[in-house]
Amino acid sequence: MSRPDLAAAELVERATNGDRRSVGRLLSLVERGGAGAEEIAELTHLESHSSHVIGITGAPGAGKSTMVAKLVAACTAAGQRPAVLAVDPSSPLTGGAILGDRVRMAEVDTTAFIRSVATRGHAGGLALAIPGGARVLAAAGFDPVIIETVGVGQVEVDVTAAADTTVVVVTPGMGDAVQANKAGLLEVADIFVVNKADRPGAGDARRDLELMLELSHVTGQEDESYRPPIVMVNSLDGDGIAEVYDLIHTHQDHLVTSGTLHDRRCRRTRFELASRAGLRFERVLTSALDTPAVAAVIDDVAAGRATPASGLAALTAALDAPL
Ligand SMILES: Nc1nc2c(ncn2[C@@H]2O[C@H](COP(=O)(O)OP(=O)(O)OP(=O)(O)O)[C@@H](O)[C@H]2O)c(=O)[nH]1
Ligand SMILES: [Mg+2]
Questions:
Q1: Using CB atoms within 10 A of its CB, is residue 90 exposed (0-12), middle (13-18) or buried (19+)?
Q2: Does ligand 1 have an atom closer than 6 angstroms to the CB of 62?
Q3: Range of the domain at 179
Q4: Is any atom of ligand 1 closer than 6 Å to the C-beta of 64?
Q5: How far is the CA of 78 from the centre of ligand 2 (A)?
Q6: CATH number for the domain including 156?
Q7: Predicted TM-score (pTM) of this structure
Q8: Could you read off the pLDDT of 45-104 as tens digits, one per residue?
Q9: Best probe residue, ligand 1, of 66, 169, 194 (max atoms within 8 Å of C-beta)
Q10: Residue 55 C-alpha to ligand 2 middle, in angstroms?
Q11: Shared domain check, 155 and 53
Protein backbone atom coordinates (compact mmCIF):
# COMPACT_ATOMS: atom_id res chain seq x y z
CA MET A 1 0.00 0.00 0.00
CA SER A 2 1.42 3.38 -0.95
CA ARG A 3 1.78 5.93 1.80
CA PRO A 4 -0.53 8.89 1.20
CA ASP A 5 2.23 11.42 1.94
CA LEU A 6 4.43 9.91 -0.78
CA ALA A 7 1.53 9.94 -3.21
CA ALA A 8 0.81 13.58 -2.43
CA ALA A 9 4.46 14.58 -2.85
CA GLU A 10 4.59 12.79 -6.19
CA LEU A 11 1.38 14.52 -7.34
CA VAL A 12 2.70 17.94 -6.33
CA GLU A 13 5.94 17.26 -8.21
CA ARG A 14 4.00 16.33 -11.35
CA ALA A 15 1.58 19.24 -10.96
CA THR A 16 4.40 21.76 -10.73
CA ASN A 17 5.82 20.23 -13.91
CA GLY A 18 2.61 21.01 -15.76
CA ASP A 19 0.68 17.75 -15.41
CA ARG A 20 -2.99 18.80 -15.38
CA ARG A 21 -4.28 15.40 -14.25
CA SER A 22 -2.19 15.67 -11.10
CA VAL A 23 -3.58 19.16 -10.46
CA GLY A 24 -7.09 17.69 -10.71
CA ARG A 25 -6.26 14.83 -8.32
CA LEU A 26 -4.74 17.23 -5.80
CA LEU A 27 -7.85 19.42 -5.92
CA SER A 28 -10.03 16.34 -5.26
CA LEU A 29 -7.89 15.44 -2.26
CA VAL A 30 -8.08 19.01 -0.95
CA GLU A 31 -11.87 18.96 -1.32
CA ARG A 32 -12.05 15.72 0.64
CA GLY A 33 -10.31 17.49 3.54
CA GLY A 34 -8.70 15.83 6.55
CA ALA A 35 -5.08 14.71 6.80
CA GLY A 36 -4.64 14.44 3.02
CA ALA A 37 -5.62 18.09 2.53
CA GLU A 38 -3.31 19.20 5.33
CA GLU A 39 -0.42 17.29 3.79
CA ILE A 40 -1.03 19.01 0.43
CA ALA A 41 -1.18 22.42 2.13
CA GLU A 42 2.25 21.66 3.62
CA LEU A 43 3.66 20.69 0.24
CA THR A 44 2.25 23.59 -1.78
CA HIS A 45 2.16 26.58 0.56
CA LEU A 46 5.69 27.88 0.07
CA GLU A 47 5.37 27.78 -3.71
CA SER A 48 2.02 29.54 -3.90
CA HIS A 49 2.81 33.15 -3.04
CA SER A 50 3.32 34.85 -6.34
CA SER A 51 -0.12 34.18 -7.85
CA HIS A 52 -2.82 36.82 -7.65
CA VAL A 53 -6.08 35.42 -6.23
CA ILE A 54 -9.19 37.11 -7.64
CA GLY A 55 -12.65 36.52 -6.14
CA ILE A 56 -15.70 37.10 -8.36
CA THR A 57 -19.00 37.19 -6.52
CA GLY A 58 -22.58 38.31 -7.13
CA ALA A 59 -26.19 37.13 -7.18
CA PRO A 60 -27.19 33.87 -8.94
CA GLY A 61 -27.38 34.42 -12.69
CA ALA A 62 -25.62 37.81 -12.60
CA GLY A 63 -23.38 36.60 -15.42
CA LYS A 64 -20.32 35.76 -13.35
CA SER A 65 -19.32 32.69 -15.36
CA THR A 66 -19.88 34.47 -18.67
CA MET A 67 -17.67 37.33 -17.47
CA VAL A 68 -15.04 34.97 -16.05
CA ALA A 69 -14.81 33.18 -19.40
CA LYS A 70 -14.07 36.53 -21.09
CA LEU A 71 -11.63 37.48 -18.36
CA VAL A 72 -9.82 34.15 -18.77
CA ALA A 73 -9.49 34.88 -22.49
CA ALA A 74 -8.07 38.34 -21.70
CA CYS A 75 -5.54 36.77 -19.30
CA THR A 76 -4.34 34.16 -21.79
CA ALA A 77 -4.15 36.79 -24.53
CA ALA A 78 -1.82 38.73 -22.22
CA GLY A 79 0.36 35.62 -21.79
CA GLN A 80 -0.90 34.59 -18.35
CA ARG A 81 -1.95 31.08 -17.29
CA PRO A 82 -5.22 31.57 -15.42
CA ALA A 83 -7.15 28.98 -13.41
CA VAL A 84 -10.75 29.14 -12.23
CA LEU A 85 -12.33 27.57 -9.16
CA ALA A 86 -16.10 27.82 -9.61
CA VAL A 87 -17.70 27.23 -6.22
CA ASP A 88 -20.86 25.31 -6.94
CA PRO A 89 -23.54 26.14 -4.40
CA SER A 90 -25.21 22.81 -5.23
CA SER A 91 -28.60 24.42 -5.29
CA PRO A 92 -31.24 22.92 -7.55
CA LEU A 93 -31.69 26.40 -9.05
CA THR A 94 -28.18 26.99 -10.27
CA GLY A 95 -26.41 23.63 -10.02
CA GLY A 96 -27.31 22.66 -13.57
CA ALA A 97 -26.23 25.98 -15.02
CA ILE A 98 -22.76 25.66 -13.59
CA LEU A 99 -22.03 22.42 -15.37
CA GLY A 100 -22.98 24.19 -18.59
CA ASP A 101 -20.72 27.08 -17.61
CA ARG A 102 -17.78 24.75 -17.21
CA VAL A 103 -18.23 23.39 -20.69
CA ARG A 104 -18.64 26.87 -22.10
CA MET A 105 -15.57 28.14 -20.28
CA ALA A 106 -13.50 25.11 -21.20
CA GLU A 107 -14.24 25.86 -24.85
CA VAL A 108 -12.86 29.34 -24.44
CA ASP A 109 -9.38 28.26 -23.70
CA THR A 110 -7.49 25.03 -23.23
CA THR A 111 -4.47 26.53 -21.46
CA ALA A 112 -6.67 27.69 -18.58
CA PHE A 113 -7.65 25.31 -15.80
CA ILE A 114 -11.35 25.30 -14.89
CA ARG A 115 -12.70 23.43 -11.92
CA SER A 116 -15.99 23.30 -10.00
CA VAL A 117 -15.91 22.82 -6.25
CA ALA A 118 -19.13 21.42 -4.83
CA THR A 119 -20.21 22.93 -1.55
CA ARG A 120 -22.51 20.03 -0.74
CA GLY A 121 -21.14 17.75 1.95
CA HIS A 122 -18.49 20.20 3.02
CA ALA A 123 -19.90 20.83 6.49
CA GLY A 124 -17.74 23.87 7.14
CA GLY A 125 -14.79 22.51 5.20
CA LEU A 126 -15.40 24.86 2.29
CA ALA A 127 -13.54 27.56 4.17
CA LEU A 128 -10.52 25.29 3.84
CA ALA A 129 -11.23 23.79 0.43
CA ILE A 130 -11.13 27.22 -1.25
CA PRO A 131 -7.76 28.47 0.02
CA GLY A 132 -6.40 24.93 -0.25
CA GLY A 133 -7.49 24.68 -3.88
CA ALA A 134 -6.19 28.15 -4.70
CA ARG A 135 -2.84 27.18 -3.18
CA VAL A 136 -2.58 24.03 -5.31
CA LEU A 137 -3.35 26.01 -8.47
CA ALA A 138 -0.86 28.72 -7.58
CA ALA A 139 1.85 26.19 -6.77
CA ALA A 140 1.16 24.54 -10.14
CA GLY A 141 2.04 27.88 -11.72
CA PHE A 142 -1.43 29.21 -12.53
CA ASP A 143 -1.70 32.96 -12.24
CA PRO A 144 -4.15 34.51 -11.67
CA VAL A 145 -6.34 32.10 -9.70
CA ILE A 146 -9.96 33.22 -10.16
CA ILE A 147 -12.59 32.05 -7.67
CA GLU A 148 -16.21 32.40 -8.79
CA THR A 149 -18.97 32.09 -6.25
CA VAL A 150 -22.59 33.05 -5.71
CA GLY A 151 -22.69 35.95 -3.29
CA VAL A 152 -25.09 34.68 -0.69
CA GLY A 153 -24.35 34.14 2.96
CA GLN A 154 -21.30 32.39 4.29
CA VAL A 155 -19.90 31.19 1.00
CA GLU A 156 -18.99 34.63 -0.26
CA VAL A 157 -17.41 35.49 3.05
CA ASP A 158 -15.21 32.42 2.67
CA VAL A 159 -14.30 33.43 -0.85
CA THR A 160 -13.44 37.02 -0.08
CA ALA A 161 -11.33 35.77 2.79
CA ALA A 162 -9.31 33.79 0.25
CA ALA A 163 -8.98 36.53 -2.39
CA ASP A 164 -6.48 39.36 -2.85
CA THR A 165 -8.89 41.28 -5.09
CA THR A 166 -12.67 40.92 -4.92
CA VAL A 167 -14.93 41.82 -7.86
CA VAL A 168 -18.63 42.19 -7.05
CA VAL A 169 -20.99 41.73 -10.01
CA VAL A 170 -24.42 43.36 -10.01
CA THR A 171 -27.01 43.60 -12.80
CA PRO A 172 -29.63 46.17 -13.83
CA GLY A 173 -33.06 45.92 -12.26
CA MET A 174 -34.42 43.92 -9.36
CA GLY A 175 -32.62 46.16 -6.89
CA ASP A 176 -29.47 44.12 -7.28
CA ALA A 177 -27.29 46.86 -5.87
CA VAL A 178 -29.56 47.06 -2.83
CA GLN A 179 -29.39 43.28 -2.44
CA ALA A 180 -25.61 43.42 -2.67
CA ASN A 181 -25.62 46.02 0.06
CA LYS A 182 -27.82 43.85 2.29
CA ALA A 183 -25.63 40.82 1.69
CA GLY A 184 -22.60 42.80 2.86
CA LEU A 185 -20.98 42.68 -0.58
CA LEU A 186 -20.40 46.42 -0.75
CA GLU A 187 -17.93 46.19 2.07
CA VAL A 188 -15.83 43.51 0.42
CA ALA A 189 -15.74 44.94 -3.12
CA ASP A 190 -12.48 46.19 -4.59
CA ILE A 191 -14.08 46.56 -8.02
CA PHE A 192 -17.77 46.75 -8.97
CA VAL A 193 -19.03 45.40 -12.26
CA VAL A 194 -22.47 46.37 -13.54
CA ASN A 195 -22.89 43.41 -15.86
CA LYS A 196 -25.60 43.10 -18.53
CA ALA A 197 -25.00 46.78 -19.23
CA ASP A 198 -26.77 46.17 -22.55
CA ARG A 199 -30.01 45.90 -20.57
CA PRO A 200 -32.30 48.79 -19.57
CA GLY A 201 -31.60 50.24 -16.13
CA ALA A 202 -27.82 49.75 -16.21
CA GLY A 203 -27.25 53.46 -15.56
CA ASP A 204 -29.65 53.29 -12.59
CA ALA A 205 -27.74 50.33 -11.14
CA ARG A 206 -24.54 52.36 -11.39
CA ARG A 207 -26.15 55.36 -9.67
CA ASP A 208 -27.55 53.06 -6.94
CA LEU A 209 -24.05 51.78 -6.27
CA GLU A 210 -22.53 55.26 -6.25
CA LEU A 211 -25.22 56.50 -3.89
CA MET A 212 -24.80 53.59 -1.52
CA LEU A 213 -21.05 54.02 -1.47
CA GLU A 214 -21.51 57.72 -0.65
CA LEU A 215 -24.18 57.18 1.99
CA SER A 216 -22.52 54.38 3.84
CA HIS A 217 -19.04 55.88 3.52
CA VAL A 218 -18.03 52.37 2.76
CA THR A 219 -14.85 52.22 0.83
CA GLY A 220 -14.37 48.51 1.31
CA GLN A 221 -10.78 49.24 2.14
CA GLU A 222 -8.66 49.25 5.22
CA ASP A 223 -6.81 51.90 3.28
CA GLU A 224 -8.66 55.14 2.53
CA SER A 225 -6.56 56.00 -0.52
CA TYR A 226 -8.39 53.43 -2.62
CA ARG A 227 -11.94 53.87 -3.85
CA PRO A 228 -13.57 50.88 -5.60
CA PRO A 229 -14.25 51.76 -9.25
CA ILE A 230 -17.49 50.83 -11.05
CA VAL A 231 -17.26 49.31 -14.55
CA MET A 232 -20.10 48.80 -17.03
CA VAL A 233 -19.76 45.41 -18.74
CA ASN A 234 -21.53 43.41 -21.40
CA SER A 235 -20.14 39.93 -20.93
CA LEU A 236 -21.87 38.57 -24.02
CA ASP A 237 -19.83 40.68 -26.44
CA GLY A 238 -16.95 41.47 -24.07
CA ASP A 239 -17.55 45.22 -23.77
CA GLY A 240 -15.78 46.54 -20.67
CA ILE A 241 -13.78 43.35 -20.03
CA ALA A 242 -10.49 45.03 -20.95
CA GLU A 243 -11.25 47.71 -18.37
CA VAL A 244 -12.02 45.08 -15.69
CA TYR A 245 -8.74 43.38 -16.55
CA ASP A 246 -6.82 46.67 -16.23
CA LEU A 247 -8.55 47.62 -12.97
CA ILE A 248 -7.72 44.24 -11.47
CA HIS A 249 -4.06 44.96 -12.21
CA THR A 250 -4.33 48.49 -10.87
CA HIS A 251 -5.73 47.06 -7.66
CA GLN A 252 -3.00 44.42 -7.53
CA ASP A 253 -0.34 47.15 -7.87
CA HIS A 254 -2.08 49.18 -5.20
CA LEU A 255 -2.06 46.16 -2.84
CA VAL A 256 1.68 45.87 -3.23
CA THR A 257 2.63 49.56 -3.05
CA SER A 258 0.35 50.30 -0.07
CA GLY A 259 1.36 47.18 1.84
CA THR A 260 -2.27 46.05 2.00
CA LEU A 261 -1.46 42.74 0.33
CA HIS A 262 0.44 41.54 3.36
CA ASP A 263 -2.33 42.72 5.72
CA ARG A 264 -4.92 40.86 3.68
CA ARG A 265 -2.86 37.72 3.60
CA CYS A 266 -2.41 37.92 7.36
CA ARG A 267 -6.18 38.14 7.68
CA ARG A 268 -6.53 35.20 5.32
CA THR A 269 -4.05 33.16 7.33
CA ARG A 270 -5.85 34.01 10.55
CA PHE A 271 -9.16 32.92 9.04
CA GLU A 272 -7.69 29.71 7.70
CA LEU A 273 -5.99 28.80 10.95
CA ALA A 274 -9.21 29.47 12.85
CA SER A 275 -11.13 27.27 10.41
CA ARG A 276 -8.59 24.48 10.71
CA ALA A 277 -8.53 24.64 14.49
CA GLY A 278 -12.34 24.80 14.52
CA LEU A 279 -12.65 21.59 12.51
CA ARG A 280 -10.14 19.82 14.73
CA PHE A 281 -11.84 21.08 17.84
CA GLU A 282 -15.18 19.74 16.64
CA ARG A 283 -13.63 16.29 16.20
CA VAL A 284 -12.01 16.40 19.64
CA LEU A 285 -15.26 17.60 21.20
CA THR A 286 -17.29 14.85 19.58
CA SER A 287 -14.96 12.11 20.77
CA ALA A 288 -14.81 13.64 24.27
CA LEU A 289 -18.62 13.55 24.42
CA ASP A 290 -18.44 9.83 23.63
CA THR A 291 -15.95 8.85 26.36
CA PRO A 292 -17.44 6.57 29.05
CA ALA A 293 -16.81 9.10 31.85
CA VAL A 294 -18.65 11.90 30.04
CA ALA A 295 -21.40 9.57 28.84
CA ALA A 296 -21.98 8.56 32.48
CA VAL A 297 -22.28 12.19 33.63
CA ILE A 298 -24.58 12.98 30.69
CA ASP A 299 -26.74 10.13 31.93
CA ASP A 300 -26.75 11.55 35.46
CA VAL A 301 -27.53 15.12 34.35
CA ALA A 302 -30.35 13.90 32.10
CA ALA A 303 -31.84 11.87 34.97
CA GLY A 304 -31.60 14.76 37.42
CA ARG A 305 -28.91 13.12 39.54
CA ALA A 306 -26.22 15.65 38.66
CA THR A 307 -26.09 19.32 37.64
CA PRO A 308 -25.10 20.69 34.20
CA ALA A 309 -21.99 22.26 35.79
CA SER A 310 -20.73 18.84 36.83
CA GLY A 311 -21.38 17.60 33.29
CA LEU A 312 -19.35 20.49 31.90
CA ALA A 313 -16.53 19.79 34.37
CA ALA A 314 -16.38 16.15 33.22
CA LEU A 315 -16.41 17.25 29.57
CA THR A 316 -13.65 19.81 30.13
CA ALA A 317 -11.54 17.17 31.86
CA ALA A 318 -12.03 14.82 28.91
CA LEU A 319 -11.05 17.66 26.53
CA ASP A 320 -7.72 18.13 28.19
CA ALA A 321 -5.76 17.03 25.13
CA PRO A 322 -3.86 18.98 22.50
CA LEU A 323 -5.62 19.76 19.22
N1 LIG B 1 -27.87 40.41 -21.85
C2 LIG B 1 -26.84 39.90 -21.20
N3 LIG B 1 -26.89 38.64 -20.72
C4 LIG B 1 -25.83 38.16 -20.06
C5 LIG B 1 -24.65 38.92 -19.84
N6 LIG B 1 -23.78 38.16 -19.15
C7 LIG B 1 -24.38 36.98 -18.93
N8 LIG B 1 -25.61 36.96 -19.49
C9 LIG B 1 -26.59 35.85 -19.45
O10 LIG B 1 -27.04 35.66 -18.13
C11 LIG B 1 -27.29 34.27 -17.87
C12 LIG B 1 -26.54 33.83 -16.63
O13 LIG B 1 -25.14 33.89 -16.91
P14 LIG B 1 -24.07 33.08 -16.07
O15 LIG B 1 -22.75 33.51 -16.57
O16 LIG B 1 -24.38 31.63 -16.06
O17 LIG B 1 -24.36 33.69 -14.62
P18 LIG B 1 -23.70 33.27 -13.24
O19 LIG B 1 -23.66 34.50 -12.42
O20 LIG B 1 -22.43 32.56 -13.45
O21 LIG B 1 -24.78 32.27 -12.67
P22 LIG B 1 -24.64 31.26 -11.42
O23 LIG B 1 -23.25 30.69 -11.45
O24 LIG B 1 -25.69 30.24 -11.66
O25 LIG B 1 -24.90 32.08 -10.20
C26 LIG B 1 -26.88 33.54 -19.13
O27 LIG B 1 -28.04 33.28 -19.90
C28 LIG B 1 -25.96 34.51 -19.82
O29 LIG B 1 -25.94 34.35 -21.23
C30 LIG B 1 -24.62 40.26 -20.37
O31 LIG B 1 -23.64 41.01 -20.22
N32 LIG B 1 -25.73 40.69 -21.03
MG1 LIG C 1 -21.74 30.68 -12.72
A1: middle
A2: yes
A3: 48-258
A4: yes
A5: 23
A6: 3.40.50.300
A7: 0.84
A8: 888 888 999 999 888 888 999 999 999 999 999 999 999 998 865 544 444 344 445 545
A9: 66
A10: 13
A11: yes
